[in-house]
Amino acid sequence: MTPIIRFEHVSVNAHEKTILSDISFELFPGEKAVLCGKSGSGKSSILRTLLGLHALSRGMVYFRGKPLDYLSVQAIRSCTAYIGQEPVLGADSVREALLLPFQFKAHRGRQPAEAQLIEALQRLQLPADILKQASNHISVGEKQRIALARGLLLGKNLYLLDEVTSALDEASKQAVFEVFSDPGLTVLSVAHDPDWISRCNRVIKLEEGRLIQDVT
């Protein structure tokens, strides 16, 4: 089986500092991997490198067997949902935020029906009437789940998640766990949450930009 993502002896420098050093790992379809380590250990830098936001100083990143370049970065972004600690929803209302990607050429003509919007929200313990609310009047935890719902509506199968349960209560976390139990979804995440880590089948530990442990 070909890995979706492969880092091969990757090093990255930023602001005259080495932020990743000789990182090598593979991520296969359906895996749920979590990057662990202290603040500044390079966890989020791995996600940004994969999205083409950091230039490589050494090594190579492969996506579905192809080396990272302009075209493969576009392919990664087209099939990936990246969700940070406080997602920017990019629209005034929750409804508009969920429908925003469907205005673009790549997704035009695939706009979900009302019932699909409500189903995606309910899967994540969000009420249907949140569609009417302003994006700047909802909580961080609600923004995280709305960003996840948008990924589900778009049919994304690769998720890059940065502390995505950091603002969730127990019931909301359980809903997120249930969504990502789907074997068709591949996840590379950053987390400190022990509950999230315990549900991942791969734990990759970093220290000062180096990979020190990879446990499956």
How are the SSEs placed, and which strands pair?
Elements lengths: L4 E10 L2 E11 L4 E5 L6 H8 L7 E6 L2 E2 L2 H10 E4 L10 H6 L14 H10 L16 H14 L4 E5 L7 H10 L6 E5 L3 H6 L2 E6 L2 E6 L1
Parallel strand pairs: 3-8, 3-9, 6-7, 7-8
Antiparallel strand pairs: 1-2, 1-4, 4-5, 9-10
Helix pairs in contact: 4-5
Explain how this protein is built.
InterPro entries: AAA+_ATPase (IPR003593), ABC_transporter-like_ATP-bd (IPR003439), ABC_transporter-like_CS (IPR017871), P-loop_NTPase (IPR027417), Type_1_exporter (IPR039421). Pfam families: ABC_tran. Residues 5-215 form the ABC transporter domain. It comes from Candidatus Methylobacter favarea. This is Putative ABC transport system ATP-binding protein. This protein is α/β, with parallel strands linked by helices and 216 residues long. The protein has a single domain, classed as P-loop containing nucleotide triphosphate hydrolases (Rossmann fold), CATH 3.40.50. 30% of the residues lie in helices and 28% in strands. It has helices at residues 43-50, 70-79, 94-99, 114-123, 140-153, 170-179, 194-199, and strands spanning 5-14, 17-27, 32-36, 58-63, 66-67, 80-83, 158-162, 186-190, 202-207, 210-215. The strands form two sheets. Strands 6-7-8-3-9-10 form a six-stranded mixed sheet, sandwiched between helices. Strands 2-1-4-5 form a four-stranded antiparallel sheet, with helices on one face. A hairpin with a 2-residue loop joins strand 9 and strand 10 (210-215). Helix 4 (114-123) packs across helix 5 (140-153). The longest helix is centred in the C-terminal third of the chain and has 14 residues, at 140-153. The chain is globular and about 50 Å long. The two termini are 17 Å apart.
